[in-house]
Structure formats: structure tokens, C-alpha cells
Write a structure and sequence with these properties.
mainly beta
């Protein structure tokens, strides 16, 4: 059985394309709060009425780092990062498209040379129906390896800030 956090991690939601993740968060939080709304920017706002004078705010980003497709070649989709990661941190990560298709991201070629000066490549060379992905102005989401223990969850794209 997939944990709630693993389900959130597996849901498509790169920067600027958070609708599916917002809907899932609304569904998951609804049993624990009194009211859930979404504002004009797509932020999910959940309210749990309490007693007393203290309030608690819990905030977390729901978007995941993404890749905007800039150019399509026979082997690689040249992509730029949308989010706050460095190119060096995503070599050999996995990019997922909205249909669930996953491909490897490369910053370097097999000889250790940079593929592109200011971009990364998504390898679609052996993808069935690769022409489906060889379009510019589309987005992919960077997937993170999720490591869960009883005490913690590790992976990029998850963060929670709580204040009183």
C-alpha cells in the first residue's frame, strides 16, 4: 500500500502545472479540516477551526521542479529547469510527462562532456511514439527518489513550514 506522501510524490505537478497535485491535496486533507478552498493562483488553503488564541499555519510547496522543453532532437529533448535546482543535481534523474511516461535526464554525455551549455537533455531515443514527446512548449516533472522511514521522508520537492 502506497503511503500518502508517496502518492503525492508520484502525482504529476511541475511548476505552473499543479492542478492534479492540488486536487489530491484537497482530497487528502478534507477529513482533517473544516474548510478547504483554492485561491485564484491555485494555492490550497485548508482551515481547521480551533479554540483559544493561538493559530497554526502549515505551508508547503506542492509543485515539483520541472523541465520546459525548448528543442527536440532525435535523441534528446533540450530542456530548461523550472524551479530551484542546479543542473548538476539532476544528471541521471527521471523526468515524467503528464501521461506518466518516464525518461532519463542527462547533463553530461557518456564521455563526461556537457550536452548543452545551459540546458539538460531528456533521452527519448528509444521511446515508443517518441514524436509525441518531441514538441516544444511542454513540461515534464522531475521525479525524486523517495526515501521513507518511520521518522522522516527524504526527497526533493517536499518541504513543510509551520508557524504559530
Amino acid at each position: 500500500m502506497k503511503s500518502k506522501i508517496a502518492e503525492l510524490f508520484a502525482t504529476y505537478g511541475p511548476c505552473g502545472r499543479e492542478t492534479a497535485i492540488a486536487e489530491l491535496i484537497c482530497e487528502k486533507v478534507m477529513p482533517y479540516v473544516d474548510k478547504v478552498t483554492t485561491d485564484l493562483l491555485g494555492n490550497v488553503i485548508a482551515v481547521k477551526n480551533g479554540i483559544g488564541e493561538k493559530n497554526i499555519l502549515i505551508s508547503c510547496p506542492m509543485d515539483r521542479p520541472g523541465l520546459a522543453i525548448l528543442e527536440a532532437g532525435e535523441k534528446y529533448l533540450r530542456s530548461d529547469l523550472v524551479g530551484s535546482l542546479l543542473f548538476e543535481n539532476i544528471h541521471l534523474q527521471t523526468a515524467m510527462f503528464s501521461d506518466g511516461a518516464e525518461f532519463t535526464v542527462y547533463d553530461l554525455d557518456k564521455d563526461g562532456n556537457k550536452l548543452f551549455e545551459t540546458s539538460v537533455g531528456i533521452d527519448v531515443e528509444n521511446a515508443p511514439n517518441k514524436e509525441k514527446y518531441q514538441k516544444t512548449a511542454q513540461f515534464a516533472m522531475l521525479k525524486s527518489e523517495l526515501k521513507e522511514t518511520d521518522d522522516s521522508v527524504q526527497g526533493f520537492g517536499v518541504g513543510v513550514i509551520a508557524c504559530c
